[in-house]
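Morning!

This is the sequence you dropped in the shared folder:
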Amino acid sequence: MARAAGGALAACKTDSLGSNGVIGMSEIGRVIDRVAADALAAPLKAAGYRKDGRTWRRRVGDSVQVVQVQASQSNVGTDGRFLLNAGVYFPALAARIGLFSPTDAPLELDCHVRTRPMPPGRDWWKVRAAGVARPDQEAGRILGAVFAWLDRRADRRAARTNARATQDLTQALERYALPWLDRLVHLPSARDELARRGPLWWAAAASLELGEPAAAARLFAQAVAAAPAKAENLRRWGRRNGLEAAGD
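The structure's back. Tokens below.
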């Protein structure tokens, strides 16, 4: 799946993430939920998006635009990190590609074009759940006192930390996510993005959906040449869709 560079692209998962993006209700999870709701709910609702857990979707013509807040799988205890994802999904393209059945409620990871619309230099936002730190039972008296002081100091800063994350998340949505989503809402633009970033055979599939067989044949040939290890599987897909590559 194409993921545009807009921030850190290191793999991460939402802790206890269910199929609809809902997590187990840890305290730090509740903090992230509050920050996401405060930052995103109003502007996305105004734009016509509907909320499902930490995922918002909007149907525009033949596409579904998706915005998702993703928490780090390492979030435990008092401190957590999260980031913002966005993507555009095309049911007709999903049917043409044939990997999975089309859905009306795609997750961000189902989208055909995807991005992390993070500000330059920003990999994550950090938040803190104040008042839930517990003493370290393995620390001695002196170290335990130091850790307790550090927790109290972080707790005093938690409201400011979380407010800053809320403000930054709103700005990322408005400055990066929404313009990107609007730019790629239609299949021709998404096809061009796939042609630049891959997978090329998805760009070929998009060209077929657009009724452009010559462009599809060119992109498909490039896809086969660029992935020798996958060439046979690609050729099988190509034959099912009326496309041939060198060697057929």
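Headline: Confidence is low (pLDDT under 50) at residues 2-25, 142-150.

More detail when I'm at my desk.
O.
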